[in-house]
Amino acid sequence: MPDVNPMQHNQVGSLYRDHRGWLHQWLRQRLGCSETAADLAQDTFIRLLTKEAAPQPESPRAYLSTIAKGLMFNHWRRQALEQAYLEALALQPEHESPSLEEQHLVVETLLQLAQILEGLPNRDKQIFLMARLDGLKYQEIADRLNINVNRVQKAMVRCMQQCYRVLYD
Question: What Pfam family is a match, any one (predicted)?
């Protein structure tokens, strides 16, 4: 964790003391689970501690709830991805099922891939997945999507640039 200056630590500490209970309750109402709400509330304050500048919100509850909403959406996204993966695993013969460690690595990789593709146009995502996951050649993708190969190539360039930005910037 980066160094936290004393002023920032005091400001986050003050926000924590004044609003932790409210934030936990706010999250619990939306999540229906006190333990997950506590985790996300804690993660919210950790985010504040790791920010470059000390937070000085005019409306602390709105500020905290905005950060917590992002964490909540990430939590739901992860749950949905894990559920989809487990459903796909259930269709596999039992002797082909990966170990729990392998399952965890796959879920982490899928989450990273989802993060990489976030913000790209849907068509670009579709092209990327058809090329990388389905193993289709650019001409096959173009034929299936009724577009030209040049459009497939350009989409792949945008996707690869996005991969590079997320992984190395």
Answer: Sigma70_r2
